[in-house]
Amino acid sequence: MPVGSLYDLSGKIALVTGGSYGIGYAIASGFAAYGARIVFNDINQELVDKGLAAYRDAGVDALGYVCDVTDETAVRDLVRQIERDAGTIDILVNNAGIIKRIPMIEMDAADFRKVIDVDLNAPFIVAKAVLPAMIAKGAGKIINICSMMSELGRETVSAYAAAKGGLKMLTRNIASEYGQYNIQCNGIGPGYIETPQTAPLRAPDHPFNRFIISKTPAARWGTTDDLIGPAVFLASAASDFVNGHILYVDGGILAYIGKQP
Ligand code: NAP
Ligand code: GCO
Fold first, then answer.
1. Average pLDDT in the 214-231 region?
2. Domains of the chain (ranges plus CATH)?
3. Which H or E run contains 93?
4. pLDDT digits (tens, 9 = 90+) for 62-77
5. 117 and 103 in contact (C-beta within 8 Å)?
6. DSSP-derived secondary structure letter, 36
7. pLDDT greater than 90 at residue 261
8. What is the rounded average pLDDT of the residues 163-191?
9. Alpha carbon nearest to ligand 1 atom 11, residue
10. Is 192 close to ligand 2, i.e. is its CB under 6 Å away?
11. What pLDDT does residue 120 have?
């Protein structure tokens, strides 16, 4: 392949779960700019409609579906429907996620299970549904959206950290198990990104806002657009011999011990 087309995604079909807004939307829009056909799902029709309108406004002809990624039967049906409407999926981004910020000793087991279900079990379910066609094709890219919490803990996020740490290992295992079929499974670990998920932490007078800016050598929150380049790399031929990695896109948080007092 000519070096100039290493990042070309023309003719590729990319499924981005939970891709109506935020990180998933930005990554999908980036894929579209490099030629991919975008398919996304979300948890309800309102979100799907919001996503479809946003893609349309950006000039992207996306297909959107309602599907709960924790429901294995619904996911299997979704993948069959996408195959009928667009073709087999070349690129999967496991992006849909939830967080519950509750101190561990106050957290109900049901809430803990719910976070594990969406953030860890669902990436297994969706990857399992797309892998057979990737194996048959002899090519595929799976990108799991991990977190700082794949490496670090902090107060109130026990379930999220357990799920995202597990997702890192699921990533390595998919790479180990299916790398022989020319399938690459890597993760992206976003740092602290400006999205609705982090809105409660970002109020200018919130101590966490100052804390994150001081913990980030780049001295700012990330934007969803900061994730586009890394995602295009991991979805494209440019990363064909990169497998089982987590690419942290964190402005340097994981490299940094923090400002000296
Ligand atoms: P998000 O609020 O985490 O959610 C993405 C989408 O997934 C939302 O539309 C959400 O619907 C949907 N979703 C939730 N449960 C679902 C289910 N069972 N089935 C289908 N869709 C479902 O968006 P985000 O902040 O852009 O984060 C995207 C991913 O990046 C997540 O995995 C998150 O954990 C990870 N991440 C985020 C940050 C950050 O700073 N924002 C940092 C690191 C990692 P609802 O809106 O109804 O929940
Ligand atoms: C938190 C959570 C999330 C972050 C993210 C960091 O600290 O509350 O970890 O809010 O958005 O996942 O990578």
1. 97
2. 8-194+222-251 (3.40.50.720)
3. strand 91-94
4. 999 999 999 999 999 9
5. no
6. P
7. no
8. 99
9. 43
10. yes
11. 99
Query: What does each C-alpha distance from 211 to 11, 218, 222 come to in angstroms?
Result: 43, 13, 14
Residue 8 vs residues 30, 50, 236: alpha-carbon distances, Å:
11, 28, 7
Distance (Å) from CA 122 to ligand 2 centroid: 19
Q: From CA 252, how far away is CA 248, in angstroms rounded? A: 8
| Closest protein CA for atom 19 of ligand 1 | 68
Q: How confident is the model at residue 260 (pLDDT cuts 50, 70, 90)?
A: confident
Q: Looking at the chain, how many residues does it have?
A: 261
pLDDT digits (tens, 9 = 90+) for 7-38: 999 999 999 999 999 999 999 999 999 999 99
CA dihedral 178, 12, 58, 226 (to 10 degrees): 40
Asked if 178 is an active-site residue, the reply is no
How far does the centroid of ligand 2 lie from the alpha carbon of residue 201, in Å? 9
The residue nearest atom 12 of ligand 2, judged by CA position, is 147
3-class secondary-structure state, position 261: coil
pLDDT at 196: 95
Residue 116, both tokens: 């594990």
**Alpha helices, H only, the chain:** 22-33, 45-57, 72-85, 109-116, 122-137, 158-178, 207-215, 228-235
User: Which of 52, 75, 93, 95 to mutate to test ligand 1, by most ligand atoms within 8 A of the CB atom?
Assistant: 95
